[in-house]
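Lab meeting tomorrow. Please check the following:
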Amino acid sequence: MKIPDMDMREEERAEARRRKILAVRGTKEGLRFIINCLRDHHWRVRKTALESLLESYSPELYIRDLIDMLYEQDNAGARNAAIEALVSVGKKAIPYLKRAFNTTDHDVKKFIVDILGTIGDPEAIPILLQAAEDEDDNVRASAIEYLGRMKEDSVIEALIKKVKTGDTWIAYPAIEALGRLQDPRAVPVLLEALSDRSLSEPVIRALSMIGVPESLEDIVPYMKDRRRSIQQEVIKAIARFYDKGVSIKYIHDVITRHLGEEATEVIARLVEERDKETKAAAALVQAILKDRRAIRHLLDLASEDRFREMAIDTLQWIATEFPDRILHYLRAGFPETRRIAAEVIASLKDRRFYEPLMDALNDTDGHVIGIAARGLSFIGDRKTAEAIQPLLGHPYPDVQDAAVDALYNLRDYLDMYRLKDLLKDDNERVRKNVALLIGRCGRIEFVDQLALLLADPSTDVRKAAVSAIGMLRVSKAEEILKTALTDEAAEVRAFATERLASAGTATALEAIMFMTKDPDPYVRAASARALGRFPDRRALDALIGLLQDDNGYVVTQAIESLTRTGHPRAKEALIELLQQTVQREIKRTIILALASFVDTEEVIKPFLLSEDWALRYAAVKALKEIGTESAIKTLRYVRDTENDPTVLDALKEALGDT
């Protein structure tokens, strides 16, 4: 067990070595010291030495030293630092690495292959091809793997020759590489290798990645193989062919021709696998075989993000080809199942599903009702609009929103004058949603009726009226909205303030400026957002004035609006506030905002040393956005002394570290 004091002294000594690196970097005398520090036992010292070497010296001065470090078997840290440095040098290191490959040390050869493969430049292909002939199994296998990653046409024939050797240890990675390259020239040799039991799994995978439809004839019979792993690979291969656009009919015919009635039962077993990739592929193939059991599995898979797109696409195909098979799940089952079924059916916009979707308007689940309403809006008519209209008063807000969307889509079938009468309905939800619908439809002839709603007892209705009036392109809308600026509810005043900005007139600006004095901070914040839409000196002055507001939320909204102006006076005001305020959130917001202005880098940099991690985090984000060479260099410098994990993650992201 280490003694804490000893640990502390060692940390201090390491920090001293690190600071010396920074002091001597770039000098001729410092080069040897920095190279030796790559062998240091402390990772921070090695990291600083590595960065200093790469930033301050020409590669020709140290590449040979790095290659020599690959031989240091008793110092893994030095070897890893040398490998990282050589990869960072990139293409310039390749000639040196080619010469260094002529060694009897197989470990060093393997390191060189890894470095060349990671660099990934076509100039490395000749040496990788040479390495693919090496007597050491690990060197050969790694070289073949990297050749497959390079996606260069010149390596195809070499990899094909590796498959033909019959040496499983070499053929296996070559097959994997050919699969990644997806070149059809590899198909004949892969089909030859398919009969080799030790290679059948990678061959099936490679053939499906290449995706030549005819090769499916050779893959499907392996569904009868007793090896579970092979069955799993075949089912996933079939799914890949489908993803590549091979027709459902062709896949169906190949499977039934080779497996007959046995196919549905083999796949029924695979669809129960725990492995989700296998399960998803099996469910897809079940659907292709017109097995109604697939629907249940696809509905389950659709609830998971990674399988959702595939499941929905397949369910859409089933619903199109066999509409009766999915309707059961729209009418029965758990709400989540009904929602997905409704989504699939609604997305098709197919008149065949008109009646089932109309029935779904009576579902007990609000999501199903909303999905059905939106789906009907694309295939419906006047009767549909009449059926959806009562949903404007539904208790669930999501259903109300869906009803407004649907009726807007069906607006050509609406009797707007009858709808207007609902502005007087006893149900406040109806009044609110009818107002929003009239606004969205742009019916300027009803502006006076909407204005009457500004005296409605319901705050939600008055807010909706303000929103609707703000949507209407009519001159009197501005004057009506101004009357809402005196509403008793702050929410309504805030809504009216923001909607006035769309008028863009001098009188609207004056009204918004007046609202910067409102007693409610929610309204003052709305005025800050609205002022940001005016390219006017008075708006700029008002926003700068809001920086002195006693509410932090108002100040942050003013900061964001000032940022959008890009005005030099805005920058000056923000810098001044940054120096004066003690409020952490305001400081953080200003630091992030300053990244949008020119010549603010030096103002931001000191906050990288703040005691507050949130301010350091903001400074990192801001300097990343600025992105100059000096900003990135500064971020590299502070990375070695940062201890907070959140800030460290931000630094890694900014510097492109993995």
Notes: The two ends are 32 Å apart (CA to CA). The chain has a mean pLDDT of 92. The first helix runs from residue 4 to 24. The chain is about 70% helix and 0% strand.
